[in-house]
Structure formats: C-alpha cells, structure tokens
Amino acid sequence: MRYLVTGGAGFVGSHLVLALRDRGHEVVVLDNLSTGHHQAIPDGVTLRQVDLMDLSATQKCVVDGPWDGVFHFAALSLVGDSMRNPLHYIHYNTQTALNLIQACIEHNVRKIVFSSTAALFGGPERSTPIPDDALIQPGSPYGESKLMIERTLYWADQIHQLRSGCLRYFNAAGSDPQGRAGEDHRPETHLIPLTIDAALGRRPALQLFGTDYPTADGSCIRDYIHVTDLADAHIRLLDQIDNRSVRYNVGTGHGYSNLEVIRSVERVTGHTVPWEAAPRRAGDPAMLVADASTLRRDTGWTPQFTDLDVIIETVFKWRSAHPHGYSD
C-alpha cells in the first residue's frame, strides 16, 4: 500500500511512519519541519517539505497518487499556547486541514485518518472513563480547532464520500521500543520527558501546574497511551472506513496523576525529581481517561504498553541515548 502522512516528522507521526514502513508499505511524509525533525524520517521514506497552508503545494503532493489513504497529524498542538493565541490556533489548524481535505477530494483520495484529541471533552458531565458519545465541550481553542476539523470531515463524507476515521486520544507518551524514534519538542512541554530531565539535572525543578484539583492527590490525572500502541490504532482504522466514517476515543482506560508520574520516574531513573507547585494552566481539566471499548470491539485493538513504569522506561532509554534529541 501507499500512504501520505502529514506531520510525519513529528512525535506521533514519526512512530506511525515507522509502523507503516515495518509493515512493508510505501510512505511519503508531508511536513514543514517547523516542529518536526528531518532525522526522524527513516530510511526508505520520502520527505516533502511543504506547509499545508500553501494550497497549491499541498495539491501538488496529493496529486502524486494514487494513495491508499492519508494520515493527518500536522497541527499546532499546545493547549496553553492556544489559550494565549486562540485565533492563530483556530486559523492555522482549520485552514491547513481544509487545504488537505480539498486536495483529497479533488484528487480522488477515498480515506483519511485524522489525529484528533481528547481536548474535545474539556468539561465532560459524565463520570470517567469518557465514552465516545460524551458531551463535546472543548475547553481550549486547540480543542475547538480539532472539533471544527471533525465537522468538516463529516460534511466531506456526506457530500463527497471522503471516508474518515477520527481518533480522539489522551496523552501520547513513550518512545519506539527499538530506540529508533522519540520525543523531541522544542521547547518540551510534555510531563514525562520534562520530569525525566528534571530527575537527571538537565533542567530546573519541575513545575507542577495545579495541586488543588478534585483528585485523590490534588494533581491532574491523564490516560497515557504509548505511541506504538497509538500508531497501531491509527492503522487499524483503515479497514473500518472502507464504507463508513468512524469516531473513536483511544486510550488505556487507566489514568495516572501527575504526582504518580513523578514517583514512576523516580523508580525508573533511580533519581529524585525536584518539583515545585505552580498555578493551574487555563484549559486543563482535572481528569481525562478514555473509554476505548468501542475501538477495541470494532478493530480488535489492544494496547501493549499499559504499565506506566514500562512507558517511562522507553522514554528514559531514548533520552539517555539522545540527550540533545535528534541533534545527536
């Protein structure tokens, strides 16, 4: 098969690219490298450095088909930053998706898998884990932009028969178990790599945003899903969207608090994590844990990495071998 992956030089996208290549597929990555890394593209995979904001350049890539499917990961993705720059986030994420969707329709692409987000559920009224049909109420412009893209895909299906699969996932974490890819954000904003770096003395004390949430220890609770499991879930959606569009939550179904992450990092690294309390960040809900039972039932997907210590160990190995990320 032949697939186009936008944002394939980024954290989650690069692990999807590895999974596709490992299965023997031909992969072309479309990425502007604003946050991704050329070094994350494995041998045998073509990189086209294109910004999806450029409709003409996007069309030139998509026209070079045929494609058995498109995976869309490229986006601005920082919740806190979206609260400071809401119009920029909504404009960029929706416009780039619109350009890609338009190109797919015009050039006869029949299937697209969209990397959506659990930020759609900014204030769920139901108890966790959050089911697929939970109230959608984005708590940030980032989440709002993803919702707008999902709605666009709905109409692209209704009118143009572009089938789509949307995966609403919670906290992507981990690194490739074989050490071929990892997490290298600049600046880094994700809790696990920040906590590891604090433990190793590579950064100042970790700031814990919010210690007064209505949880057992006062810190946020998140469902951490390993990127290898996440890549597998994306690929499994391809068979589901042959004749219909689908929307799924994806996660392990178990949440860990920020303080539990700190203790896990201390166990894995053997180092104490220096940390200090900081005010809550706007847009952060107290708890996000996924009910992925529908995805499991329909696709047979089962996460292989469910133990937090194991997930963190893969990150620790990557960051130990690559203290400067892909620059090493």
TrEMBL record:
Its EC number is 5.1.3.2. It catalyses: UDP-alpha-D-glucose = UDP-alpha-D-galactose. It is an enzyme of class 5 (isomerase). The keyword Ribonucleoprotein does not apply. InterPro entries: Epimerase_deHydtase (IPR001509), NAD(P)-bd_dom_sf (IPR036291), UDP_G4E (IPR005886). It holds the Pfam family Epimerase. Coiled coil: none annotated. Its cofactor is NAD(+). Keywords: Carbohydrate metabolism, Isomerase, NAD. CDD domains: UDP_G4E_1_SDR_e. Pathway: Carbohydrate metabolism; galactose metabolism. The keyword Cell division does not apply. Residues 4-251 form the NAD-dependent epimerase/dehydratase domain. Belongs to the NAD(P)-dependent epimerase/dehydratase family. Homodimer. PANTHER family: UDP-ARABINOSE 4-EPIMERASE 1 (PTHR43725:SF53), UDP-GLUCOSE 4-EPIMERASE (PTHR43725). This is UDP-glucose 4-epimerase. It comes from Saccharibacter floricola DSM 15669.
